[in-house]
Amino acid sequence: MRRAAEPVPPGPSHTHGRWGEDISLSTCTHSTTTTTTIIIIIVAARAGREPSIAVLTHNWRPWKRDSSALNQMFSNNDEAVINKKLPKELLLRIFSFLDVVTLCRCAQVSRAWNVLALDGSNWQRIDLFDFQRDIEGRVVENISKRCGGFLRKLSLRGCQGVGDNALRTFAQNCRNIEVLNLNGCTKITDATCTSLSKFCSKLRHLDLASCTSITNLSLKALSEGCPLLEQLNISWCDQVTKDGVQALVRGCGGLKALSLKGCTQLEDEALKYIGANCPELVTLNLQTCLQITDDGLITICRGCHKLQSLCASGCCNITDAILNALGQNCPRLRILEVARCSQLTDVGFTTLARNCHDLEKMDLEECVQITDSTLIQLSIHCPRLQVLSLSHCELITDDGIRHLGNGACAHDRLEVIELDNCPLITDASLEHLKSCHSLERIELYDCQQITRAGIKRLRTHLPNIKVHAYFAPVTPPPSVGGSRQRFCRCCIIL
From 14, 39, 372, 382, which residue has the greatest number of CB atoms within 10 Å? Predict the structure, then answer.
C-alpha cells in the first residue's frame, strides 16, 4: 500500500492507462496552517469500482507508474476508500471543479458518488453546446429539477430540440438563473420570455440570437419581469421593431450590452429610446440595421457616454457626423466597426482619433474615401491600436503604412493589419512593418504589387507572423492572336 506522503503525479483531465482503463483525474488544493495538501482522486470509469485517495504534501518526488501501484490504489480495503476518509463537504468541494462529462462518469462509480456527483451545488454552471444534437426538452427539464435554485449559468446554444414547454419548466425550477444562452434555439417563441419574466427576476445576461420567432412581446415581458438585465442579444430577431425596444429600455435601464445585429426593421427612433434610457450602455451592435442614420446614432453618443464598443458595419447611411459625435461624447471608445460605411472620410476619422485615444480595434473595410491622412492621425493619437482592417481602402499607399509603422502603436501593440484589395500597396509597406514586433497576422489578398520576395523579407524579421496572400500565376499565352495576358487566381496561404 502506497503511503499517503508518497506522491502520485498529476495528469490530464482524462487519460487512457496502458492497463486498458479510462482514468479521470481531478486536483483540489486544501491549505492549512502547516502544509498544503493536494488531493488527487483517481476514478475508474467502470461502474462499481471504489475510488482511492492519495494525500500529498508539497514535497514532491518522482513517481514511476506501474500496474502494481495502480492495483494498490484501487484496492477496496478500508484504508483506501476515499468515502470513509473525507467528509462529504470536502468531497463536494472537490467535485465542484469537475466538468459535466467527468461528473457523469463519477456518478457511475458507486452509489455514494452518484449522490455527490449529482448534488445540485455541482451544477451551478452548465454548457451543453457540445451535446446540442442530443439535447431535447426532457433533458432540460430533468436538469432543472436536479439543479433547482443552485443553477446560475446555463448555455443551450444551438440546442434546436428545446422548446417553450421545457423552458417553462426550467424557469419554474431555476429561479436564481443569472446567465442564459439560447442562441440558435429556433423552436422558442415569446412564450419562453414570458416564463422567464414570471419566474427569473435575477436574470442578467440573455442571448436570444437567431431565435427568429421572438417579437416585441418578448421585450415587453423582459422589461416587466427582469429589471436586472444587463446584457441582451437579439441579433437576427428581425420581427423586433422600435416599439419593442421602447418597452425594453423602460424597464431595463441598466443595460450595458445590447446586440441588435440584423434587426432590419429598426429605425432611428429605436436608438433615441436607447440613448434616453440606457446611460450605462458600454457595447452596442447595429450591424446591417440598414435604416439607421446619423440622427439615431448621434442620440446614442450623447446619451451613452460610457460607450466602449460600437458596431455600425453596413449602416451605409451614416456620415462623418457620427465620428464627430463619438469623438465629442465617447472618449472611452475602444472598438469601432464601420465596414461598408462608404460616406465616412478623413475629416471624421481625424476628429475621432484626436479624442478617442483608447481605440484598440477598428474595422474600416470598404471605407473607400479614406486616405493616408487617416493613418497619420491614428499613428499619432491612438497608441493602443491592436487590430486595423483597411480592406478595399483603395486610396491607402505605402506612405500611410510608413506612418503607421513608425507610430506609437507599432512596436508593442499592433497585432493584426488587413490590407487586402489595396492596389497601391507595395513591398515598401512590408518594410515599414518590420518594426511591429507584436504583429501576428497580415492580410494581403489582391495586393498585386506585393511580391513573394517582399513577404520573405518580412518573415525574416517576424518569423511567427501569419501572412495571408495569393498570387496570380500567368497562364500560357494563347497559340493564336496577341490577346492580353490572362490570370488564374489561385489562393496561397503563406
Answer: 382
Bridge partners of 259, per DSSP, are: 233, 285
Asked whether the beta carbons of 37 and 57 are under 8 A apart, the reply is yes
User: Does residue 189 have a pLDDT over 80?
Assistant: yes
Q: Are 274 and 249 in contact (CB under 8 A)?
A: yes
Number of DSSP helices (H) and strands (E) in the chain, helices first: 18, 19
Among all chains, which residue has been given the C-alpha cell 497559340? Answer: 479
Going by DSSP bridges, is the β-strand pair 309-311/283-285 parallel, antiparallel, or unpaired?
Answer: parallel
Phi and psi angles of residue 55, each rounded to the nearest 5 degrees, phi first: -100, 125
**Where are the alpha helices (H) located in 183-319, listed in sequence order?**
190-199, 216-225, 242-251, 268-277, 294-303
What burial class does residue 378 get, using C-beta atoms within 10 Å of its C-beta: 0-12 exposed, 13-18 middle, 19+ buried? buried
Is the domain of 40 the same as that of 105? yes
Determine the structural domain holding residue 183 and report its residue range: 123-205
388, β-bridge pairs:
362, 417
Count of domains for the chain: 3
**Alpha carbons 436 and 440: distance in angstroms, whole number:** 9
What is the DSSP track for 411-452? TTT--EEE-TT-TT-BHHHHHHTTT-TT--EEE-TT-TB--H
Please check whether residue 48 lies inside any domain of the structure.
Answer: yes
Residue 406 lies inside a defined structural domain of this protein: no
Over 60: is that where the pLDDT of 208 sits? yes
Lowest mean pLDDT among 99-103, 117-121, 471-475: 471-475
| Separation in Å, CA 341 to CA 51, 143, 395, 430 | 62, 46, 15, 27
Task: Report the pLDDT value the prediction gives residue 28, as an integer from 0 to 100.
Answer: 38
Q: Which of 59-68, 115-124, 163-172, 284-293 bottoms out in mean pLDDT, i.e. has the lowest?
A: 59-68
Q: Is 86 helix (H, G, I), strand (E, B) or coil?
A: coil
First to last CA, the chain: 57
Q: Are residues 106 and 158 in the same domain?
A: no
The helix-helix angle for 320-329 and 346-355 (nearest 10°) equals 10
| CB proximity list for 280: less than 8 A, separation 6 or greater | 253, 254, 255, 256, 306
Judgement on whether residues 230 and 330 belong to the same structural domain of the protein: yes
Cell of 219: 421585450
